[in-house]
Design goal:
seven-stranded mixed sheet, single chain, 30 helices, elongated, alpha/beta, 18% strand, 866 residues
Length: 866
Amino acid sequence: MCNLTPMMQQYMEFKEKYRDSILFFRLGDFYEMFYDDAELASRELELTLTGRPCGKDVRAPMCGVPIHASAGYIAKLISKGYKVAICEQMEDVAEAKGLVRREVIRVITPGTVIETEMLDDKKNNYLMAIKKDKRSFGLAYVDVSTGEFLATMIDGENVESRLVDEVDKVNPSEIIIFLEEKDEEVYKRLSKMLNSFISYIDEEKVDLNVIRDITIDDKVKENHVSEVAVAALVSYLSGTQKITLPHIDVAKWYTRDHYLVLDCAARKNLELTETIRDGGKRGSLIWTLDRTQTSMGARKLRKWIERPLVDIMRISKRLDAVGNLKDNFIIRNEIMESLQKVYDIERLATKLAIGNVNCRDLISLKMSLKNLPFIKEQLEKLDCNLLRDINSGIDTLTDVVDIIESAIVEDPPITIKEGGIIKSGYDRRVDELRKATKEGKQWIAEFEAREKERTGIKNLKVGFNKVFGYYIEVTRSYYNMVPDTYIRKQTLANCERYITNDLKRIENMILGAQDKVIVLEYDLFVKVKENIASSVMRMKKVADNVATLDVLCALAEVAERMNYVKPNISDDGVLKIKEGRHPVVEKVMDDNSFVPNDTYLDTEDSRLAIITGPNMAGKSTYMRQVALIVLMAQMGSFVSASEANIGIADKIFTRVGASDNLALGQSTFMVEMHEVADIVKNATRHSLIILDEIGRGTSTYDGLSIAWAVVEHIADKSKIGARTLFATHYHELTELEDKINGVKNYCISVEKNGDDIVFLRKIVRGGADESYGVYVAKLSGVPDCIINRAQDILKNLEKEEMKRIQKKLKIPVIDGQIDMFSMNNSSETKLDREIVGEIKTMDVTTLTPLDALNLLYKLQQKVNEG
């Protein structure tokens, strides 16, 4: 470093402290980057890479961005998962003696972004810290842009799996992990599975004293591992943001059992906030339900979807509010129209709290708050507990509105240091300075006229030069008329030049008035900002209530448009849905052609439904719609049915679809088995389980055996006994209805018309006898030559299967018919007359694999019974 220039030595000192960040080093009107940072930034931002002499025989790679356009470049780097350290000039270059003093004023990371242009206004941006203990994990996470701060602890059985589920649900942009724990396998799994930036913190640098000035829920303090996670989060924020964050809420404690538990697979398979196909919003549940008018409401709706409730009273309050708004169409419309004019009060309050607000933000805040009195007037007309609570929680903040109204112009410029932001009449000094700027010449002319009249000096004139400024010039013939208040400044051959206190006052107002007014306006803006910043916590409370109202209005709007009904919520375990519909599929179809279906499950005689039927007939859609209806009801939404009783579920599990996980080296079947294992380990009798085609990723008999055993285990009340929908192509499982109490068979009805088949998409009692796989292939457009060949192969396989059964049980066959005489006289098979009578007319050559396997099963049972 000794060969470097002083400035580059300064740069290298900062870079050493912020090695994990791209250092934006302020040089005049640019942020410059050097060496590796420059090469990385030039590649990621498509900037021209140049060089800069930085010492004796030393030239550094360099690139830069203009300060006025830096936000876009920083946003791009953050979106790619980089950190950016902002190194600012802390003194005026013109006034600096020697090297300009610089400091890193902030480190921007994926989890600490507050800039609107870098954020999705409909999603929270969480920063999470995780601390591992022997048998538990402490979690703390915060959204710096809104101030929301939460903490919990994950412990008990399957703790690592539960941690992954919780982190996946929060979906943080950045995760802070203790350096000493970075090699833990669960963190490696998280880094492969999530699109989260991983940061590390040294445990020795985390002092619990950093949280002594923060309000923390007592439950957090009772769980040391969570308290350490909170301390790590606060330490990280202090080290990166370099300022206090007064808007951060109380660190609130919650537990997973406060909400309906949804694991990673359930959130993915049910497509709650994004689709499996392309990760987009269209086609997801939130796309169906989102009629919110504000960004705050959109974020809250996402939380409600991801965290449905389990408390019947809280659910019922939401449902009552949705119903009240649904029934009052005019009032709802008036409220929603007003909400359209409400900006993001929550994030505006944050910007205000940390001093990052501009005048346009204040105008947006004012315009938002001015809608609150009307919204409250409308709420007064409604009769509902939750809506009354919301109304009482909405403070109109008229004092804040009045301050902004009186001080800030209606259409201010973007910048706050170029003037033009303070209203006329707010401050006398500003008004005078502006008048001096605009009317300076007129003032001088008026002053000159007044002095002529006052003194009687007819040729008196006011002039100006750069040495003396403004002056009064009087010719020699009028010297005797010069007032005593004139102060002689200069004597010339034919005249004298004077100044007066009034002239100097006018001069001071005119000269540099523009610069003075800019400084004064900024000072006044700062005072206004500081004045209303004291109301930040009031604003946050208002924002929360407005967001809740927005969600309730949106759900009421959807309920009316889509003909949803209010569900009855109970704890009796009965799930009864009449004419249920898949909310997303129904909306996509948009032609009233969706076929509704009934559902009945309980915790006793009908707790597990085995659903058989062909592919493409609607089994998966049906099962997903049941799960979504339960979820919608427990989040407080009306549901897509004509009638619904929802027995509260504590958890929803799904195993739907086939997918591998190449990142973790898992095949489709391995993923399937992992998900099944998680379900049977974590489900309770109060859970809802959706299982589709268990065992299809392996051989037929392996798969059938696994599926059979899973059904037995789930149906067993001493083990789980959960309400379950189990779709399968293993028709052999329909035998379980007669063997296991609580198991019932259902199938998708099919209508045959010659060689054509129509899937009626209706769920009916009973089991299906065919899968129609070849026909489905035909419908999908597979060429006829393949279809015809597949049908031939299928017949041959069925014959071979029957021959194998014959050989195994030594069933005598003559010309394709079972030889009943030989069977009746066979002591080896030990078949009784009941079975013989059942199969005596059967044509063995036409048996399907299902018929054959069922026959094999019955014959084996009789042999075993002996």
